[in-house]
Amino acid sequence: MTDKVRAAVMTAPRAPIELREIPWPALEPGSAMLRTRFSEVCGTDVHLHHGKLAGVPYPIIPGHVSVGEIAAMRGELRDVHGVPFKEGDMVTFLDVHETCGKCYECLVTKQTTRCAKRKVYGITYGVADGPLGGWADHIWMKPGVKLLRFPKGVDPALFIAGGCGLVTSIHAVERGEVSLGKSVAVLGAGPVGIAAAALARLAGAHPVIVIGAPQGRLDFVATMGATHGISLDVPHEERAAQVRALTNGRGVDVVIEAAGDPRALPQALDLVRDGGRVVIAGQYTDSGDVSVNPHSQVNRKHVEIRGCWGCDFSHFYRAVAVLGEQGKSLPWAGAVSERYTLERAGEALAAVERRDVIKAVIAP
Amino acid sequence: MTDKVRAAVMTAPRAPIELREIPWPALEPGSAMLRTRFSEVCGTDVHLHHGKLAGVPYPIIPGHVSVGEIAAMRGELRDVHGVPFKEGDMVTFLDVHETCGKCYECLVTKQTTRCAKRKVYGITYGVADGPLGGWADHIWMKPGVKLLRFPKGVDPALFIAGGCGLVTSIHAVERGEVSLGKSVAVLGAGPVGIAAAALARLAGAHPVIVIGAPQGRLDFVATMGATHGISLDVPHEERAAQVRALTNGRGVDVVIEAAGDPRALPQALDLVRDGGRVVIAGQYTDSGDVSVNPHSQVNRKHVEIRGCWGCDFSHFYRAVAVLGEQGKSLPWAGAVSERYTLERAGEALAAVERRDVIKAVIAP
Amino acid sequence: MTDKVRAAVMTAPRAPIELREIPWPALEPGSAMLRTRFSEVCGTDVHLHHGKLAGVPYPIIPGHVSVGEIAAMRGELRDVHGVPFKEGDMVTFLDVHETCGKCYECLVTKQTTRCAKRKVYGITYGVADGPLGGWADHIWMKPGVKLLRFPKGVDPALFIAGGCGLVTSIHAVERGEVSLGKSVAVLGAGPVGIAAAALARLAGAHPVIVIGAPQGRLDFVATMGATHGISLDVPHEERAAQVRALTNGRGVDVVIEAAGDPRALPQALDLVRDGGRVVIAGQYTDSGDVSVNPHSQVNRKHVEIRGCWGCDFSHFYRAVAVLGEQGKSLPWAGAVSERYTLERAGEALAAVERRDVIKAVIAP
Amino acid sequence: MTDKVRAAVMTAPRAPIELREIPWPALEPGSAMLRTRFSEVCGTDVHLHHGKLAGVPYPIIPGHVSVGEIAAMRGELRDVHGVPFKEGDMVTFLDVHETCGKCYECLVTKQTTRCAKRKVYGITYGVADGPLGGWADHIWMKPGVKLLRFPKGVDPALFIAGGCGLVTSIHAVERGEVSLGKSVAVLGAGPVGIAAAALARLAGAHPVIVIGAPQGRLDFVATMGATHGISLDVPHEERAAQVRALTNGRGVDVVIEAAGDPRALPQALDLVRDGGRVVIAGQYTDSGDVSVNPHSQVNRKHVEIRGCWGCDFSHFYRAVAVLGEQGKSLPWAGAVSERYTLERAGEALAAVERRDVIKAVIAP
Fold it and tell me: Has this prediction a pTM greater than 0.80?
């Protein structure tokens, strides 16, 4: 054991990533330290670096979805089935915690992803709060953080390849009520879109049409379960015509938006069939307004649009379970082009920002 | 019996309403003629007169929701419970019929209000098709039109006072899953908004906040069950603040849009609580596009938006049933300022267009 | 302040209720003491006295739904909207607490009423745990217990008259998806049945048929919103015929079972229409098996049967809210025949057991 | 063309199957004759032969799910997408038709499988009604019967191998809301159970545990997607223990009952997790009552039980679509041990009755 945590720190928006040493925290009962195996570099980290999220306490240690071994623990920690953890266990954890369990969102509407007290590793904690981000050689598991072991046969590298996009997609596919025999279009071929397409197919959807770019990602998502890919180089009207041609002229039962561009909202409404459902899961930051037609795109179309914000433990649990079984034969690892040391975290971030890679992973 | 039907005819958009005589149709088995007691003049008729609906076969006999006695019938007609109709029965009928029962919308998605074959009395039939609109002394019930008797104690005048807005609102309240203890805001104080507020209250919602104009309508809707009224004279931001003040700072569980103005869509998204539901029921014609913010108004808000198009028999049946019981003590009749003869149909239409009256009724 | 709590104690099944003094507990931060205004004597207390519940740590202080003023508190307590409590506030609290927030039921299936860690005031706490039941002059609010203020204008006496039956019924009516225009039959005319009928009517159901006994309870429930009452003196087959006669020969859309007798399950299946829904809410203890026919009563009938166990905070919150608004004009207080001092708690229990009273209330 | 239809006729319960010639019907507009390629012999035919269904107009031509080419047609027939059929098209059709479209079940509850007017090929039509069963060289498509073409690449032999069990299972899996990541147990390893297991797996369920017999069927269903098989030779309590062992001690999320034995109902309630869902789809005929415990098996368990009766066009449509895509790689054909000529229809029936074969097919 050491008395310092080495971390790659984002000191401010647009500033270079710096390596720093952070004090090793005192472990209260019910807390632990993970020795980081992998942590993810995802689109949210790019948003963080662009300063697009409100209320971020820079300097921060980015990295919200991570994997590691329990290096130290104090008191008893148990998983959701009551099985105790022990040192050496390889685990991941739900990055969102401190959902308060006391507010209207937690108790009455039961939409805990809207709890105002939620804290998120790598996003809403600053360096001053302790080693609470994944781009570090150790991560502090505060009391109450929900850890999960991997099912037998699940390689942690597989999980981190799905990562945050996988967990988000579990929620999006659930919120879209994607089920056997439904036709699905996914807008966006980033980590969320790729995972959403894979999960929709595992859920029995057909066709599963991905609209995105560049071609390399469309090629990859085809290996993950997408039945059709349409390039963003094709004009929207023609893309819509192709979707209708694949669905007896109607449009798809469900659209999952994972693109982030505001224009994806009205486009989704053009691609869905009358009475179908659109899940808006990719508008994580504010990229501006967009025009829709309430008559032709909403009312007359009898359509349903569902925002999909964040994830709770059920999505995280199911993501790990799906990787362990239904999804284990898919080439998730193909999403990770390269692993980066802590020293190269800035490079990893830049590669994700330039969309050179689908996903980068920090392996300290 | 006569050999002609006298009808008030809309010959073309913007043209004056004319009285004409239409041939009495030959009755096939399963068809009937109603002697019109009442027919409604509603906002749709104004849209028809403005030429805002596509594919209308002018000249037409307007009047889609109507009430009458069976003056003649051929063969057997039965209600939904299998009870035969007889001459002299006072009935109303679902204006939408010829839902095909054979298409994807009828059979697979089971969203029959999107069936492309639907025909609507007073809207998609022309004079050339026969006396198929309510602004006439008789209305032809084609085979397959679904008639309903009134429950004991239901005055047909009460039903026509609710009329098309009542049936539409049954659908909107159902689609909003308004139920005991939910807070509701209704946008619009026309016939649909008024009925939606009344039904929401009958469904146990509280508060039921109506945003509309003019003050006379807000006063009326207060007698129908609305617990709070907010005038359109109040700026939107202040209206939103008032709604939050009534809902512990959160916004309402359900917004029912019955306003028709495109701006009502983003406004509804501002009034609903995180994770709540917005029903878009008032955008019956195309009044243009509007801007929304996919991030803050949809995705982060985890909201659900549901278009609500048309009505099917279940809504019509339930509308009549609710009037017979739960809703019978409400002052529906207050919505009808004046009854007009066929000769004065043009006046009735003008009064509705000027919003001088909430609703006008033709009593031939 | 005192240093003892006076309590009416159930020392063992079938033993007489005894008055005892219990030590005043040390208040940890986030805890409080209520000065009891009212506590309920309900059917569960009879079951407790009959020894029909497993794992009860006798001796116990019964009384799970209670009302009181905050007599003392330590640290900060806030309601679900974040508003702090202060001494003197009149409150009630959710008797079920220590739902663990960590198990599969709490986190994955999100059915927290099945959390194995739940603790219930007056049932799963013993005298040895402290003054954790309502039949006492003070009740200890442990940290994490969820308190609620009464809305302005809600008399605590009104709430205790609804009590546990009201909260249970909120859940049952929600689980039955009772909504505007649905026909409902309620089996049982005890506190749960009476409240279920009242809530169904407030939710816009019609008819609301209560089957129960004795006649006095049927008379009372008619004042609470039931539209029809059928006595248990009428044979089941005839009761079923009456229900069909009120529903066009079909049976009701929803049956809410609040009777407790196992025979109510197959009877409910006879009363519901094809494709309807039965909520089983009254089988709180094991009163034996019963025969059903899987073909004619379940499969061919295309029916839905839903068990309904316990309540969570959302039901409790909504119960208080409904009393504050939609339900405030109903004669809830008519359910309480008499108030009993702590000394007479045994009498109160006996009166409930003999069904002499619908509900008895302890007012220390 | 011929002027007679050769058919294998079930003249009465328990009587031998006879070959008869039936008059070729006059074709009204909108009707057709199919040249039968395949027709199914299923468990329902055994029930028919045992006289267990009420209201069957013997003599009948059995065979409800069938495949054939259009040999003759009059007027225009179109599929659900409006595409006209032509002579020579290879099609199948929904055996249930004349759903009335006018009754409470068709129009208000929208549960058309409970429409009292439904007619079923091979079951509710007698020889006197015409050649309206599949065990014949031709089958009369009355006006309104809903035909479907096979998607490109779907071998009709594959469809008939799934047959009625496939269509029924589509409904059961839909009614069970089986979706990605759910654990499922299927009771019964007949055609419905096998198809339900296959569809549950295609829908992303895991594990998919089949409980049935004999071993040969468990072996087959393992090739169709079941992840675990448990023999009926294992006592129920031990089977339940095995199911719990596969589900972290909880029981499965969804049980689909396709066994037909009344005892399967309480057994399903033992196998499902708290708060889970049981679909009762196998109790097609009355095999007697069974005991359940309303407290421990329904109420406390907070479970949901759904009867599942018949199928509508949406299930039929989706069954064909699933075979065309998601399910095309499964060895459906393995369910058909042998094809029988019309002359050997009695042998086929006997083989199904003895459970020698999973399914027999008539190929005239």
Answer: yes
